[in-house]
Write a structure and sequence with these properties.
The protein is of the alpha+beta class. It is built from 13 helices and seven strands.
Length: 354
């Protein structure tokens, strides 16, 4: 149980934090509304994606799917095409599943409780807490990467932050802090802590001198802010080669749709590609494709694998290989393309325009 003196201290700290937030927060479109739909879209997009990258996708997404009804009824191919480039495509599919459930079971109205939101496909504890607090002012603390960093330094947490028990300690401290100073403004409090982590309490070179929590930050007092949060040692990246063939016949490109049982990006379209530790000149022979002129290189990463990609202007004799088809160039913008295909086509287009 928190004693009155601790509550008073926490209330004062939260007051300073909220004053700082009002003066210094970034003006982002999803912060200008309480509507749970755009807030949900922003929270899902910002998972694993920087704000500057997500912004144009957010605006385009809301233009194409302005409400939950439009998202629920959209063709999956169109949804994936709009999402294409953000990665983690399962997020988009789960959003549509949740939208359909909201329309069918809730009459198109978002559940206004944490538990109700948590029951929707693809919505976990963080997203449920974010929507519940920001849209409906429910007192639920969010725990994302920024919050973990701020709270780890604030209480000088020495546990590895990937562990469930460590995250729960951080969540509990976040919850008591919010309840003490922002019980009626919990959404604002959550946003303030996340903003502090994104702009001041950063991973490298934190701006402790301008932090509103500085005087109560235990890691800062001990000079340990550079050692918090404690993270698990990352698995070493495996370096691989990737060759991508751009085969053009008139205004058509040779491509295939990834099968539905594919583990990665099912339903997306890709160019002929091969991967391996080292690739020979005849790496496309099994597809009946001659490798051809080298057009350029790109980098691509998937979890612990790091690829050095090479793009080739290639040729094929005779018919397209099994599962491949000739796709008109004008259709590419509306199709869900893999990130590798987009990178390779951009290199091929640049080479064509030189």
């Amino acid at each position: 149980m928190t004693c009155p003196a601790d509550k008073a201290r926490d209330k004062k700290l939260v007051g300073a934090l909220l004053r700082w937030y009002r003066r210094h927060h970034r003006d982002l479109p999803w912060r200008r509304t309480k509507d749970p739909y755009p807030i949900w879209v922003s929270e899902v997009m910002l998972q694993q994606t920087r704000v500057t990258t997500a912004l144009p996708y957010y605006e385009r997404f809301l233009k194409e799917f302005p409400d939950v009804h439009e998202l629920a009824g959209a063709p999956e191919a169109k949804l994936l095409a709009v999402w294409s480039g953000l990665g983690y495509y399962r997020r988009a599919r789960q959003m549509q599943q949740a939208a359909k459930l909201i329309v069918i079971e809730h009459g198109g109205v978002f559940p206004d409780s944490y538990d109700g939101l948590l029951a929707l496909p693809g919505i976990g504890p963080y997203t449920a807490a974010a929507i519940a607090s920001i849209s409906f002012n429910r007192a639920h603390a969010v725990v994302d990467g920024n919050v973990i960093r701020v709270m780890s330094r604030f209480i000088n947490e020495s546990g590895e932050v990937s562990r469930t028990e460590t995250k729960e300690r951080l969540r509990r401290r976040m919850q008591t802090l919010g309840e003490a100073g922002a019980s009626r403004r919990f959404g604002l409090f959550n946003q303030a802590v996340m903003e502090l982590g994104a702009t001041v309490c950063t991973l490298r070179n934190p701006g402790c001198m301008s932090c509103p929590l500085r005087d109560a930050c235990q890691a800062c007092r001990l000079g340990l802010q550079g050692l918090r949060p404690v993270k698990a040692i990352k698995e070493r990246s495996v370096k691989l080669e990737m060759a991508v063939a751009v085969v053009r016949r008139g205004s058509h490109y040779l491509m295939r749709e990834r099968p539905e049982d594919c583990d990665l990006m099912p339903g997306f379209w890709e160019l002929p590609e091969v991967t391996g530790a080292a690739l020979a000149d005849d790496c496309f022979d099994a597809l009946g494709i001659r490798r051809g002129e080298h057009l350029g290189n790109f980098r691509h990463g998937i979890t612990f694998r790091s690829y050095r990609g090479s793009v080739y202007r290639s040729k094929i004799e005779g018919r397209a290989p099994a599962c491949y088809r000739w796709v008109p160039e004008q259709r590419l913008e509306e199709m869900p393309l893999t990130t590798v295909a987009r990178k390779a086509l951009r290199i091929a287009l640049d080479a064509r325009n030189r």
